[in-house]
Amino acid sequence: MRLNKFISHNTNYSRREADELVKQGKVSVNNKVVSEFVSVSDDDKIKINGKLVKLKKDFTMIVYHKQKGELVTKKDDRGRKTIYDNLPRGFSKFVSIGRLDYASEGLLLLTDAPAIATALMNSDIEREYYLKIKGEINEEVKTAMREGFFAADATKGAHAKTAIKSMEFAPFVSFEIFGSSGGYTKLRVMINEGKNRELRRFFGYFDLEVMDLKRVSFGRVDLGMLKEGKWRYFEKSEYDDLRDFLKVNNVRY
């Protein structure tokens, strides 16, 4: 694999930080300092500042209950609060499995193994959400939820500066409408992909605004009684399920 990927998989450095270390001449491969991006294997001896990088044999997963008004990013140039401001320092290098936007809340998974984060983000594992929509859901919207559709313009509900204009929406795994009152509709939906602001874009296409969005589960991991702004480690059964997933999908971490 690429050297920067090897370093990010086996240390707390990101790929970008690994690139900088290489540029600064702080990385050696088999006792030779490298200044360019080479491919390496598990048999190669990689050192950073003379210290051997040990192959990572295990990983850590946590569940965090994201609050509204937090960004899922390491740093914000506008000084807004991020999830890392609320998490213990020891998790500053953890990466999130997907994101929840500023106005959304609920279950967020984080890990110290980037390869696992990528595999889970790109998987078809089911994600469950509770939504409050401004407006009523008619038969056209229900059909779209059942069958999916392509939107040439999927910018309504997206971030103002989005570069993603169109989007293919897969059929929802399931949905349940709890009812409408006062001009709002509450529902539960389950999808098996996590595209950029997918649900806000989906309903926005039909001129329905998502007022509240809360993710309550990712696969068999659920929010349970975890309070807003709190976190917990994976339980043994959750680790077992994840290891089965990694084995079946041949994910190296």
From TrEMBL:
Pfam families in the record: PseudoU_synth_2, S4
Family, as annotated: Belongs to the pseudouridine synthase RsuA family.
Record-linked SUPFAM superfamilies: Alpha-L RNA-binding motif, Pseudouridine synthase
E.C. number(s) listed in UniProt: 5.4.99.-
Keywords, comma-separated and alphabetical: Isomerase, RNA-binding
Segments forming domain RNA-binding S4: 1-61
Protein name: Pseudouridine synthase
UniProt organism field: Campylobacter gastrosuis
